[in-house]
Amino acid sequence: MTSFFIIITALFVQMVWLWTTRKGRKEYIADLTSFRSPSGRFSRYYQWTISKLGNALADAVIFEIILVIAIAFLLYFTEGISAFWNYLPIIIFVVILSSLSSLQVTYRVRKLLAKENQIVDKMESAEHKIDKAREIIDGLKGEGPEGDGRDWFALYKISQRADPIGYSVRDVLMEMQKEAAQPSGAVYQSTQDTTPGDVGPDIQ
Fold first, then answer.
1. For the chain, is the Cβ count within 10 Å smaller at the N or the C terminus?
2. Does the model's pTM come out above 0.70?
């Protein structure tokens, strides 16, 4: 029975972590597509997580530590802390299973950062950065729904930068949104639909 409660505890902790991550992602995307700095706690948490690969790894480690502590508290109040060693195999099992999810998130953050760096490299080598930004964005619009949402996510993330690259990307994205809001901008609707809700590393 205790093994069952250990698994339930692990599932509960993971569900809370996933909920926090998804909520942060939703708020962060809303901030990005509105061209404002992350303001809410969940949005800032998600920004921190995806800003560096090391942060994503740290988030995964913290999650595993919280999971083990939660299981330790469960055992302390049920059978005593000494029972921790008796259930060590099942604890290791649930930790390994939960780590697969956190490592998957870390991998997706790594892919997102690679996309961002790729775009930044293109922008840095361009003499006319706003023209380069327009070229990149026009190319993504041409791909339509089949395009990689991580490219859009990376572009909106880059638009937060306080440098010529960020300003150029932000200007073109704002111009695109204004065109999409006009009746004549219907041709951009498929692109607009990919940016606000389903871009970035999909946390599962």
1. N
2. yes
Q: Given the structure tokens 């990005």, which residue do they identify?
A: 32
Give the span between the Cα atoms of 93 and 99, in whole angstroms. Answer: 10
**N residues, the chain:** 204
136: nearest Cα among 122, 149, 147, 148: 122
Residue 155 CA neighbour count, 13 Å, CB half: 30
Q: 121 exposed, middle or buried (CB, 10 Å; 0-12, 13-18, 19+)?
A: exposed
* Domain span including residue 165: 1-181
Identify whether the C-beta of residue 95 lies closer than 8 Å to the C-beta of residue 11.
no
The amino acid at 89: P
Q: How many domains does the chain have?
A: 1
- H/E stretch holding 83: none
Q: What is the pLDDT of residues 114-165, one digit of tens each?
A: 999 999 998 888 888 898 899 988 888 888 777 778 888 999 999 998 898 9
Average pLDDT, the chain: 84
Q: Is residue 188 part of a domain?
A: no
pLDDT on residue 183: 62
Whether the predicted pLDDT of 193 surpasses 70: no
Instruction: Flag whether 98 is in a domain.
Output: yes
Domain membership flag for residue 4: yes
Neighbours of 39 (CB within 10 A): 9
Describe the crossing of helices 2-33 and 88-124 by its angle, rounded to 10 degrees: 10
